[in-house]
Known about the structure:
heterotrimer; B: MetI-like fold; 14 helices; 75% helix; C: alpha/beta; 2 domains; globular; disordered N terminus
Amino acid sequence: MSEAPLQAQPAAHKSESRLVRFALIGLAFSFLALFLFLPLAAVFHEAFRRGLDVYLAGLTEPDALSAIRLTLLVAAIAVPVNVVVGIAAAWAIARYQFFGRNVLVSLVDLPFSVSPVIAGLVYVLMFGAQGYFGPWLRANDIEIMFALPGIVLATLFVTFPFVARELIPHMEAIGSMDEEAALTLGASPWRMFWTISLPNVKWSLLYGVLLCNARAMGEFGAVAVVSGRIRGLTATMPLHIEILYNEYNGAAAFAVASLLAGLALVTLAAKTFLEWRYADSIAASRHS
Amino acid sequence: MSAATQKRRWREHNILPGFGLSLGVLLTALTLIVLAPLAALVLRAASAGPAEIYAIATSPRTLAALRLSFGAAFIAALVNAVFGLLIAWVLVRYSFPGRRLIDAAVDLPFALPTAVAGIALAAVWAPNGSLGALAAGLGWKVAYTPLGVMIALVFVSLPFVVRSVQPVLQEASADVEEAAALLGASRLRTVFCVILPGIAPALLTGATLAFARAVGEYGSVIFIAGNVPMVSEIAPLLIVIKLEQFDYAGAAVVGMLMLLISLTLLLLVNALQAWSRRRLGYV
Amino acid sequence: MTQPVRLLSWSRLIDLAAFVAAMAFILFATLGAHAQQTLLNVSYDPTRELYRDINSAFAAHWKLKSGQSVTIRQSHGGSGAQARAVIDGISADVVTLALAGDIDAIAQRTPLLPKDWQARLPNNSAPYTSTIVFLVRKGNPKGVKDWGDLVKPGLAIITPNPKTSGGARWNYLAAWAWAKRAYGDESKVRAYIAGVLANVPVLDTGARGATTTFAQRGLGDVFLSWENEAFLALEEFGADKFEIVVPSLSILAEPPVAIIDGNVDKKGTRAVAQAYLEFLYTPAAQKIIAKRHYRPRFPQHADQADIALLPKLDLVTIDGEFGGWEKAQKEHFAEGGTFDQLYKPAR
């Protein structure tokens, strides 16, 4: 099923004329230029327009640093949690047939189709001072809303499916023969897990982590609802961009935006590299 | 994978360990992070009572916001269905300089934070931006109109169609096309009668995913939409505004409406995938 | 199972994970190290620049007075939205909002501060005032001179959303007050307001978003703006691009400040929070207030050059004209109020 795609020029009778081909390629190019490249270029253009000094000043200002730190911290919590949960999800779903399995798959995917704003809203309704647990939290001095825990929770919600989604098809495709063999040969369950199961899927795991991380660092809607936008305290990088934008500090806003855009480009590069690196195993898992 | 389910047990026998642990972790996380909060949403919305829910759901502003969100998302999905198919086609069938770069760049909207996309689009399409000035010359206003909403939605949902169609196009066998050509079909006829039907399920799946993503989008839209009630106010923004006006019940009701529609979409996609898997053996 | 080239081996992945975990720990540790007096001032949109200056002045003042160093954190947004955040539990020590109605809402919905909060500080708890003026494009091409010109067909007016923004509520009431004098009859006033609203193409959630829309994005012919925000736009975007039009009548906007008792008592910051708000009435702060183009309560302490910039005009008050914020809020801005009634037909 996973033969390499035909890259050779197809014969004339089953392809388009040169003219049509050029036209189609040109059309695709212009569409992408209009919708992708121009906005991306605009970020860097606006960031550097007023010179490198202004750019660096925008990034090294204390509130910007604290936004960067907060964003890294949120990702450093959300991504590992998602790795653990994603591996558990993949193991349960890909290795066993059980009642309600399909429902569970859909539930894991659910956050993909929920608006980020709703992801923030649900936590306000739960943990806000007027929410279901608000009075109890306040009485016990636990801060969730407008503080780190709320931001982490909202981020966890929106990134929930990323790791599991990459792992499940890959694990299913690999099958459990290696693992069964290891067990039969007397390996302990954990040994089997660490030496067979996990290494088998490490590339798709990394792939999932990459996407999960990009989303965790860039989430705006869900975090905007729960953060309270306290400069230097609960403003993540995307929110800091919004704050700066509202303070007519376009240069600094685009400077921080360029960092995130840089992160996106690195993510894309790493992703492309991974796809090229483990193309065979992922192709096998996707379309079989 | 064997599909013979044993009726006596709720799960098939399996020698692999760790079912309880992994399912436990998954269910705990799922409940705490996703299900319980969503239940709180439904509970809060339900506490408004049927009459009020109906009043909020059918108020002109809610309807206008939902219409814009779903309408603009639908148009964005259509645009992406056409251009996504085109891009997938060009990427799979032709070789040209920069093909790999384009291939990688298609995923940019997945990786680029929506707030960054938002301010970038606003900068480009505002009346004094590079494209905005061009559009203004043609008498078009993009930023701060429903058109702006649509452009932001096209941006965020761009990769879905390409990524759904691409693998199917790659694996579509050349034999059928050759046969069609040998039987005297014109190229255009081959494309429309042989190739397109084969990728239709993937195209539909991709477009539905794009639609689902676009409906809920917030970050990139609010910078470029203008946010005028009844005109360019999307449903997620209406939720935020209701929340900021202390109207928790209203926010919860609109949220639940969106959730219901999204869930229906999700089921649709799953059914679509199951159907095409049965029919074509892949998706 | 032949492994391909091991560029990134499994053990290295584990190292990477350990490294990330260590970084997270360090970040946590540094985050916990910030153990000094911190105040959170939850404020409305256009005060960003004002409180940036006030905060550094107060930090110096407090250091001298008590020897403690204090950091003041800011959160800005539409006034109504910010009040909502406090009600939802943001741990504000003080609020400095656009209008008393929003702080009333906090007092009504939470036990965080007493209902008579406004009597606790001098001048209705408002250390500065402001008003609403028009900002138009240079040369005033549409000839907007007064409130009556706002209903001209084809004019585009920028104002934020009164549901979330405090400034927008002042705009709306100022227009209402003018119309009441000009037309007298309530149905004519309503027709006038509906006509104004029909000319509004964009409703941003906060004053700052609206300024951006008008000044940076070039939308609209006239911007109903806080006086201070109009001056800021002139400074920020160049006096050669815009000019201020002073209408014949406007409203005296009193943006009040208050301590959130429930939060300061919990955090043990009452003394510094109290001092912070009282500082706003001192000559040093009044001078900054005038510099940022708000109207100081004690103009004698300000630079007279700053005072001279502020135009003299007839100002009505919320209490005299509308019977206080509680009444005005209910009548005009609550669900189903005049704003909802008059805005709906506008498509």
